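User: Predict the complex.
Assistant: Input components as received:
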Amino acid sequence: MAATLTGSNTKLRDDLIRLLGTERVMDSTLERHLYAKDAGVYIGNPTVVVMIETTEEVAQVVRAARHHGVPIVARGAGTGLSAGAVPEVGGVVLVTTRMNRIEEIDAENHTAWVGPGVINLDLSRATTPFGMHFAPDPSSQSACTVGGNIACNSGGPHCLSEGSTVNHILALEVVTDTGDVMIVGGGAPDPIGLDLRGILVGSEGTLGIVTRALVKLTPNPPDVRTMAVAFPDIEDAAATVSGIIAAGLIPAALEMMDQLMMQAIENWLHAGLPVEAGALLLAEVTGVTEAVEAEAEIITRIAHGNNALSVQVAVSPQEREILWKSRKSAFGAVAQAAPDYYLHDTVVPRTRLVEAMRQVYEIGQRYQITMMNVFHAGDGNLHPLMAFDASEPGRLDEVKAAADELVEICVEKGGVLSGEHGIGIEKRHLMPLLFTEMDLDAQARVKEAFDAGGVFNPGKVLPEGSRCFDFGRPVPEGAWV
Amino acid sequence: MNTRFSAIPSADISADRAIPPAEVVLAPTTLEEASQALRIATEQRMKVLIWGGGNHQGYGHRVHPDMVLITTSLNRIEVWEPEDLTIVAEAGTRISQLEEMLAEKRQTTLLPNPSPTGTIGGALAAGLSSYKRFRYGPSRDRVLETKVVTGDGRIVRSGGRVVKNVTGYDIPRLMVGALGRMGLIGSVCLKLIPTPAAAVTVEVDDPAVALATLYRPLAVLSTPSGHSAFLWGTQAEVESQAGRLGGEVLSGHAWPPMPSRPVAWSLRLPPSQLSEGLERLPEGWDYVAQQGVGITECTADQVEIGAAKELRGWAESVGGALVLTNGPETLYERIDPWGTPPAGLDYQRKLVAGFDPYRVLNSGRLPGGI
């Protein structure tokens, strides 16, 4: 759409060059192509790409873009999977990866001020000497940025016990639609007024642009047990998950993978996974030694009660690391199955896991798509991975149709569209599965409150026409706006 | 119009504060009834005050209502899924009643439960968390879904009934601490926490040592009479942790009572400033301080405007706040209950306008008179 630099777009580019210099304003075909997509399957069309280094620059770019009537799509490392950072209707792609300074680590308050471009794992590495880490740990943590985590309210295996990103963000510096800078939230608990920080996290860059964040750091546990439990099938593994939760335990992580996924990982990583088993459960418990020993024992007992084939407890840090590496590199291992993959993200109440998985495989069979599964079983967060060849005509459309069916079955079971990837472009058309027109209208009012002019990441999260309830009517007399 | 609504059971009305005089007092029994009431209020441009157990009415600027909506007849427990660790309940449900039920399966909402009349909606609207937040985080982290009635009577559901969810804007979180300005909280889905087997309280000399020694204790509290660490977990775990501290160990959790006195303040500071905050408390203030969290709840017999302003000035200078949470009505005319309003008031105002276009619902209560 707004792909070619003509008319006002040329003027916008000239303005951006005046602000940032030629090196940080990119608009060649190749450069625009590089920033046209995230890690998912949707492709956009940037008008121009800018590399940002300071808050003031973000503010100036917002003002310039507004002046020229061009939208802004903020982007971190581009590891998102829901097309949240894909510039669907053109616009300025504002890249924050250079805002990667860890400004201050406050060991006493267990907090740090960081730029949005800081890589997730770098933050945990930098805070290791203080005995702390940043709890959200998406599989992409060695590449994804804190800004991206904030935009998507990212999770990861350990959000079973620690919660998603929003639980770990205390304050945000934000550039608003007017190009002003505000800090919401704070280092003291329960800041007064509405929780703007809470609504900004997970808003996928549609309400403002985060330029700094005060993150909460979590103390590293004194002891840990990581266990790999093999089962004949997914049902037994899922029954074990239910049994663990019912026993009153909330482990640090409870991850599951099916046989196909195990085989793919094992071929690539040689981690010693039990590839003959139907399912593998990775369970991790953290805490003081007495606690982790007792909890590991309970988990082992429940696993044996559910036909476990083997229970392997990682003894050394190296053994633990290889287990986690196999979990977190799963998606890289898929390339051997097919040239392309579509990684899905839906949630069901954890008690409905088994029936949901059965239907996942059934959908795979019907569409003749290889379904591989590695997911956050403890949260009921499914990640069916559909391996396919996008060069086959019509194949991507079939995969997308299968993906929609997956969401539908999860919603039927009381689930939701996304647990940690976000809605972006990928799932906005499915929002009416979960919400009424009135519910969506309320969400559209949130967007309107922050960005009535639609400068930030237009078209994401909500389907078109969501703001419907006073459509066509003038604002009533006496209304407080 | 009140014939459509149930009469108010007087036992449900807290003696803590009297319901202010109003033309109409209604106790809707369903969200649809609450919606009708708020539609009428919007048409008539009436000022509406929401009233649950009456325990947190001291928060925020005063509202002089034409209509009072009592929520305690919205008290159905809709779904409890013990194996999912979630519960859906109407917001007028008493926390004490809910907790009693959850205890049967050793689960808890972790909501603060100091008064038998406190409701889920009241605690959430006031943004309150229990002392256990040091270990488990604030209440807002466990609100998974909300159904609210907006000022103009729309019933809006947001979030979902699963423990992990990024489907649309996190409106449930916005409801927590909004004091009803974003809508009357009708029902909520809450994430539950399993209650561990063993609980002990350990008296400690130095809270800083306790914080440094223990791995994520449930709470470390200070009062004028001393400091205690609160532990939770397996028997072996709490014994080992308690052993490291060396103080007197009591079985169970001996939570300190908050003396009921006419004036109450909440001092909120970055955790590292808490000790200095305690030193700066005016003489005669009782307190329970949450070490590692940064909150000190205070009560006093006297209204000391000058001393409070001085403490507030310092608290705000270190990034905190001193919030008036209870006191005689006249006190609210002499001191702003919130102090300096936060950044982003324009956006707060616009958010509220989207949910309550005619300013009928608890209007003016938030910082900045929003």
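The radius of gyration of chain B is 21 Å.
Let me know if you want any component modeled separately.
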